[in-house]
Amino acid sequence: MKSIQLQQLAKSFGETEVIRGIDVTIEAGEFFALVGPSGCGKSTMLRMIAGLESITSGTLRIDGVAANGMKPSERHLSMVFQNYALYPHMTVEKNITFGLHTKGLTKLEQRERCLQAAETLGISDYMKRKPRELSGGQRQRVALARAIVTEAPICLMDEPLSNLDAKLRAKMRSEIRQLQRKLGLTMIYVTHDQVEAMTMADRIMLLNEGEVQQVGKPLDLYNKPANTFVASFIGSPP
Ligand code: ADP
Ligand code: MG
């Protein structure tokens, strides 16, 4: 388990400041939801933490260690994207083990880890299939298996369920939450769906136009909104 600390973290694209001085510490083992309307900067913030986007100013620490300049592979994290980002020409098994080839594991160790992750996600029967031969829900499970197989203590998810229908989304919410608890992951979970955040998270950070509106437990945002933006965002239907 690892903590993540942001101090005055900011990001500009050219003249446009899209993340404005964010201060927060995400505790080790916490399920932390990052919510806000489309375009408010959620993906940018997640990508900065992952090392996929440079940090304009401020400091990022992972488990107390300054991480601004660290390579993504040194950050002890895995990431799950909205569009799953599976390799279409590779089998499910290859997709899951792809991230392991830099870890100095033998082929047998890779296969064992892969089978275990596949079993956890209930996709053991599809190992020889290609992504196009799977349903949306099965593809999502492959993406989740690919993240957990790395055994990284931090997991970043960017709207992972937004391509699924409502029923499957509800099922996957609880599965992801169980997985996070079981593995003791430090989770940053991006969603624009406040119901998802309210039902899954230990704490929520609500962003608007790159600025933090409130950070707190779901019920605190609901019962004690810091401003009218928080009240209307948390109180409105998805
Ligand atoms: P969200 O994930 O909350 O929908 P994003 O982080 O994707 O929001 O985007 C935040 C803002 O930054 C948006 O105004 C978006 O247009 C802008 N943005 C994101 N990526 C880039 C980029 N590579 N270049 C310029 N502007 C960008
Ligand atoms: Mg986004």
Could you name the key traits of this structure?
238 residues; alpha/beta; six-stranded mixed beta sheet; four-stranded antiparallel beta sheet; binds adenosine-5'-diphosphate; binds magnesium ion
Q: Uncertain segments of ≥5 residues (pLDDT<50)?
A: none
Rounded to an integer in angstroms, the radius of gyration calculated over CA atoms is 18 Å
State the helix count.
Answer: 8
Query: What would the average pLDDT be, to the nearest integer?
Result: 93
Element order: H for helix, E for strand: EEEHEEEHHHEHEHEEHH
Shape: globular
Major sheet description: 6 strands, mixed
Q: Order of strands in the sheet with the most strands?
A: 6-7-8-3-9-10
Give the strand tally: 10
Q: List ligands, each type once.
A: adenosine-5'-diphosphate, magnesium ion
- Give the % helix: 25-40%
What structural category arises from helix and sheet content? alpha/beta
Termini separation (Å)?
32 Å
As a percent range, the share of strand residues is: 25-35%
Domain ABC transporter: 4-234
Organism: Exiguobacterium marinum
Keywords: ATP-binding, Cell membrane, Membrane, Nucleotide-binding, Translocase, Transport
Protein name: Sn-glycerol-3-phosphate ABC transporter ATP-binding protein UgpC
Describe the structure.
The chain is of the alpha/beta class. The protein has helices spanning 42-50, 92-97, 107-121, 136-148, 166-183, 194-200, 218-223, 228-235; strands spanning 4-13, 16-26, 31-35, 57-62, 65-66, 77-80, 154-158, 186-191, 203-208, 211-216. The chain is globular and about 50 Å long. The protein starts with a strand and ends with a helix. 37% of the residues are buried. The model has no long low-confidence stretch (mean pLDDT 93).
